[in-house]
């Protein structure tokens, strides 16, 4: 089976990792499905096609959608209502995208932690 069908393109993984590396408190998770989460809440995701979704609070989400002329993020055929699709050219601009990652992380920290589902 070809690697490309199961993993995002390597250049997109590299850009995603470069972005995550700008914030020391954020850890990239997921080997085949790169994502970030905090207290059980995912707040960024890189699909196997290399499309990045970023979770933002309502007002910032609406402003982002308009500013970057993008859409809500779709994953596995479902629209993720709190996520925006990060345009490829913005993913390539770590410096411009970083404040949105920081905002997403701050937003996720305001949510009540999800209970863990670890087996005993």
Task: Please give a structural write-up.
By secondary structure, this protein is an alpha+beta fold. It has a single domain, classed as YgaC/TfoX-N like chaperone (Yope Regulator, Chain: A, 2-Layer Sandwich). Helices cover 33% and strands 22% of the residues. The chain contains 4 helices and 5 strands; from the N terminus they run αβββαββαα. Strands 1-2-3-5-4 form a 5-stranded antiparallel β-sheet. Strand 1 and strand 2 form a beta hairpin. The model has no long low-confidence stretch (mean pLDDT 92).
Class by SSE composition:
alpha+beta
Please, what is the CATH homologous superfamily? YgaC/TfoX-N like chaperone
Number of strands: 5
The CATH class is Alpha Beta
Give the low-pLDDT segments: none
- Per CATH, which architecture? 2-Layer Sandwich
Q: How would a crystallographer describe the biggest sheet? A: 5 strands, antiparallel
The helix content is: 25-40%
Output the helix-strand order: HEEEHEEHH
């Amino acid at each position: 089976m070809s690697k490309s069908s199961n993993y995002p393109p390597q250049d997109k993984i590299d850009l995603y990792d470069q972005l995550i590396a700008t914030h020391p408190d954020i850890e990239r998770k997921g080997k085949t499905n790169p994502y970030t989460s905090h207290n059980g809440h995912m707040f960024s995701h890189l699909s196997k096609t290399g499309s990045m979704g970023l979770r933002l609070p309502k007002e910032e989400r609406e402003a982002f959608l308009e500013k970057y002329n993008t859409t809500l993020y779709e994953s596995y055929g479902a629209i993720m209502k709190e996520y925006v699709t990060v345009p490829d050219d913005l993913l390539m601009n770590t410096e411009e995208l970083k404040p949105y990652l920081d905002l997403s992380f701050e937003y996720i920290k305001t949510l009540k932690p999800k209970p863990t589902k670890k087996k005993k």
